[in-house]
Amino acid sequence: MAEAHQAVAFQFTVTPDGIDLHLCHEALRQIYLSGIHSWKKRFIRFKNGVMTGVYPGSPSGLLVVLVGYMSTTKYAKIDPSLGMFTKLSKHLPISKYVTEEGQRVVGGVLIGTGLWIAVTFVMRNVLKYLLSWHGWMFNRHGSLNLKTKIWLVLVKLFSGPKPMLYSFQSSLPRLPVPPVKDTVRRYLESARPLMDDEQYKRMEGLAKDFEKNLGPRLQWYLKLKSWWASNYVSDWWEEYIYLRGRGPIMVNSNYYAMVRLISHYFSHNLPLFCTLMVLNTIPMCSSQYERMFNTSRVPGVETDVLQHMNESKHIAVYHKGLFYKVWMFYDGRLLLPREIEQQIERILADKSEPQPGEELLAALTAGDRVPWAKARSQFFSRGKNKQSLDAVEKAAFFVSLDDTEQRYDPENPVQSLDSYGKSLLHGKCHDRWFDKSFNLIVFKNGTMGLNAEHSWADAPVVGHLWEHVLSSDPVRLGYTEDGHCKGNPHPNLPGPQRLQWDIPEECQAVISSSLKVAKALADDVDMHIIPFNDFGKGLIKKCKTSPDGFIQIALQLAHFRDKGKFCLTYEASMTRLFREGRTETVRSCTTQTCDFVRAMMNDKATREEKLKLLKVAAEKHQDLYRLAMTGDGIDRHLFCLYLVSKYLGEDSAFLKEVLSEPWRLSTSQTPLQQLDLFDLKSVNSALHLINFHISSKHSSPETDSHRFGSNIRKAMLDILDLFQLDNKANNK
Known about the structure:
Elements: H1 2-7, E1 10-15, E2 18-23, H2 25-54, H3 59-75, H4 84-88, H5 100-131, H6 146-158, H7 180-191, H8 197-212, H9 214-228, H10 234-243, E3 255-259, H11 266-269, E4 277-278, E5 282-283, E6 295-298, E7 305-308, E8 314-319, E9 322-327, E10 329-330, E11 333-334, H12 337-349, H13 369-379, H14 383-393, E12 398-401, H15 413-425, E13 438-442, E14 448-452, H16 459-477, E15 497-498, H17 505-523, E16 525-532, H18 537-542, H19 547-563, E17 569-574, E18 583-587, H20 591-600, H21 607-629, H22 635-648, H23 653-659, E19 665-667, H24 680-683, E20 690-697, H25 705-721, H26 727-731
Parallel strand pairs: 8-12, 12-13, 17-19
Antiparallel strand pairs: 1-2, 3-14, 4-5, 6-7, 8-9, 9-15, 10-11, 13-14, 16-20, 17-18
Domain Choline/carnitine acyltransferase: 175-713
Membrane topology: Multi-pass membrane protein
Active site: 454
């Protein structure tokens, strides 16, 4: 509809007297405003590039330096050019073109600018040096020693004023490559509790051989990459772990975020961000935010690619089998919340029927990647199909107006939450565009959530986005008494544009095949969500134990009770203290944790013995987490060494065996990151609620998500009982 609106801007009629040209002034006005908006965006992008490029310097800082330098040299009666023009005049007739006063001014500006550049360069490199120190992470939980306090003051001093999202990128250190001997030693330590003596002795022999022979050679190439590339892991991790996978990304890779609130402000409010820091001082890498919007994963036969547009002025919306392109800009500005609601109401009121193949089309993104890649090349490379696919893939993001109702039902908490989670994870397998950076899913009864594609970023980045939306929606923007967004509908706003498809029967057969694969995968998901509200983060801290360590140890206890054995456990940690950092693995099943679990299973062990082992296990877990965050993890280094060995055509029995070991238990935690955005006493969630999202496969004879959930609840309560906190503390 928007294209049709623009098309009538120019109409002409051929008559005997010539061409009679008719101009639509409203359409011309919109073209003018669109151009103004485009130039404003370019200017802002240029300005932001300059500001982040010179950070921690600033244009105002340059002015201060210039004024200070010129004033100082004038007061001291010193030539501000420091004799530069005197030396040049011996070879060039400068005095013929520039007066003596002009030479002083120009020379002063040049020298002052050089001084400002030098100061900025020094500040940036001092800051990079400071940020390379991670001793602050090894302070006792809840306290900072004097060295760390001094370091924090210095970081604050050299960080400059008012940083933007990407200000610190050039000041962040590079991810270091750990020594091979350290990685091998830590690997063997992590493998010990999972192997018997004979298995361990064999693996130790392979490890020592690798450390002595092939390892140093592979390490040399990896060191070379670390000096040349911004991050020696991230590009390979993105390509080989995500983009080269040929199986479905639905369920296997994509993840979801859940909330019980309604929001019409998803488009109006999403782009508001500031830099994210640890302890309000230490910056984290922001590179993953660059592809949050206007990004889509494009399938290929051998590997997918990420397609990112610098700007997108529309979103793609799906409702009851129909696809729409909805412009988010009009009158040269972003639509207001009430105007977005107006567009959504128009879509909800549309009673049109889907075109052949349209309703199930998105199932292509839910199935295997190769059939989708071939179908995309064969059926969507020209004509209306290409135009419509471009509208979806180049949209800012994808919105699914789901025709089902999902919510937390206090009278039926288990089934309602399980259904809610499964719907966000995979839906009907054809009502989410799984290739988009994220899908915003709004259910019929107003609840909502996200489904995010994983290759472009990790869950904390999407969580950061989600927190901004939830904190801004009901409080800062709000609704009228009759339930509408505040504001008025726009009388001239062009409506959403129905996307047009011409999908032949051959393509529909591919769609059906992909849907069958996706449905089999979705039906096999055994989803269980536990809103654990017996206690939360606040009470765990009173036990003087890390909440992360407490939960991970509880998961180990629950798993042992569930399976009767220990397993290789994956816990994701971030490496965003380094430039372009993503994740590292914390191998949470340690010898110390196993000792504690065995004590919990031993009726003869005393409470004091169990508590002592728990504290040792928690401290060990925190040490591993710190090592992972500070670049001394195990698995990313081994992964990259393995890739180098493949590039060199070298076989390593050690690396092959390590990378083929299955992760039986995979965990990650995404706590609330921006506590200042929420009234914690009001929402009563961050401190007093822990949500466990458990998924396994019905087809596995060993797993049962609900059984595991029961064991998690029991493990959490049993560990808390060791601290013998009174009932009053439990109720706080």
